[in-house]
Amino acid sequence: MRLPLAAAFMAAGLALATTAHGAPRDPAERKMVEVVRAEHGRNVELLKQMVLVNSGSMNFAGVERVGRMMRAELEPLGFQVRWIPMAEAGRAGHIVATHKGNGRGKRMLLVGHLDTVFEPDSPFQGWTVRGDIAEGPGSSDMKGGLVIMVSALRAMQQAGTLKDADITVVLTGDEEKPGSPIALARRDLIAAGQASDVALDFEGLSREGGRDTGSIARRSSNSWTLKVKARSGHSSGVCMQGVGCGAIYELARIIDTFRRELPEPNLTYNVALVSGGAQASINPAETAVSASGKANIIAAEAVALGDIRTLSPEQDARVRAKMEAIVARSLPNAEAKIAFADTGYPAMAPTEGNRRLLARLNEVNRTLDLPEMPTGDPASRGAGDIAFVSFIDGLVGLGMAGQGSHAPGETADLKSLDVQAMRAALLMTRLSKEPRPAR
Ligand SMILES: [Zn+2]
What we know:
By secondary structure, the chain is α+β, with helices and mostly antiparallel strands. It is built from 11 helices and 18 strands. It has helices at residues 4-18, 27-38, 40-52, 60-74, 139-159, 182-185, 187-194, 247-261, 313-328, 352-367, 415-433; strands at residues 80-85, 93-99, 108-113, 128-130, 133-135, 167-172, 198-201, 206-208, 211-213, 222-230, 268-277, 279-282, 289-292, 301-309, 334-340, 393-395, 402-403, 411-413.
């Protein structure tokens, strides 16, 4: 229930937050700005209701319930909404919703996710608001983005610009903990990308030094495991001719050479877990390592696991080759093997097409009297679903600004809700009028 007093208070706060915007000259654009403003209270209420539903990736009932809430918003706007179950990938499922337009403008793919990192057993649940800051699991990552998507589409509908727009919405239920095999878990997203011209990702808005920035790239995330075997023996002979130094020295050589030889822009390489001894192993979930041995035994086995994050498939391939070459330079009587998991997230490179999309968004900013958004640092962002459709132009971060995502205490900046919805509504309207590229 929404109290009239609370609604009035919200409306007053909103007027303050939006006075900086210019009124667009185009009547439809002016209408969209008005609708977003008028519906602020409704949108905050929708966000609250979504945050109050726990939708940790493994809480299938909760993920599906947030899916039904999105269905209830999208169907009245003329979207055909499907729920795609993902039991075979070990996850809840996805929402795929399509809106048929006039078939002439750019076909847009709106990307988002229904799940959060906070499972039902997390102590971080519920919803609180202090001024313009809302605190709750998934408030900015990314239920805020779902509400911004809905707000923008409603504004387009009321301004009469939605009817011509060809839009597909894909909301995955497992972005924070992708199902496996990944080819199945992202099958529907990739198919939607192949039938679209541009991808708009409603994950959180990036800010640098208090300034909104545009994101045109996301780094990949791929894990690797390193397994070393070496000749064992009595410790009294360690590193002697014909014996060797054992598996742990070899492992140390490899990861320290990574540290010294790998550094380059936009790359990170993390060593997360290591162990070594007479026996060493990694558990199947790759969340724990174990080892056993004795002080007087030369280590026969060592294992390590970590990840690399890169900005393009080329960088990824080059860095992998470099790591393999380092691994191959084994010490005497030791042998090491590195394996890269293919279950990770690909990179979305900062292409010219993505840059042009950001330029379109900055045209919208000029219309709204908002400052230009510079290109953000891709290294500051995690991997994301939009990278699976990086074969079309894409723009990241059309969602809610906030802080502390993935940690208890995550907040959303409710002031960003209206600004972001206005930006998205105008951008989508303009893209729907641009001729689609020939294929
Ligand atoms: Zn997210």
